[in-house]
Predict the structure.
Amino acid sequence: MPPFTLSGRVSDVSSGVPLGATSVVIIDGANLNRSTTTDANGAFQLRDLGMGGFAVRFRHDGYDSVFRGIQLFADTSVNVPMRPAMQSLAGTWTGSLTQTTSSGPPPQTMAIAELNLTHTGSDIAGIYPNTQTLFTATMRDPSAIGSTTSLTGTITLYVFTGGRNIVTCTGKGALTGTVNWSRLSAPAPQVPFDCGFTYTDVALSLVKQQ
């Protein structure tokens, strides 16, 4: 299998101005730690890459980092818009989700490797790369993000059971919490599922990636 090239251009999301000297690093997979920087036109190339999936981190001073999942099966080009820091909560967040069940086993913690936050006015939502929504919420005072503002919303969880005949159980519960430019913390006391069981003491904890 011949090697492939990942190329692209990095720019400011609003003005379109190219962002030179942006760090481009592959952070997992077979091409782990391959890196380069963008030129004065915001362009970059990573050559001689192996086939497969991996995540790339784009980092530029004064901007929120961007994490982009890549499936490389041919030469690929991407455009990467970046947003100045502390202008929006939108971007990539990581963290954990902890819950217990009504049947009483020990609490379980699931790592959240990548969650894309959207932010419009007072509304935010956490969406996995496969477009599955984890939560939606409304901030009480968006102008207070610089310190911390409270939020309320709904968390949605999915559990797959049934062995050969897979059944998808959907749970929804009310969450409350706080958020600022770098951290989100939101507990949900109960998340009842349509299959008849309940998660209790659900805790969502996220950190914005810079």
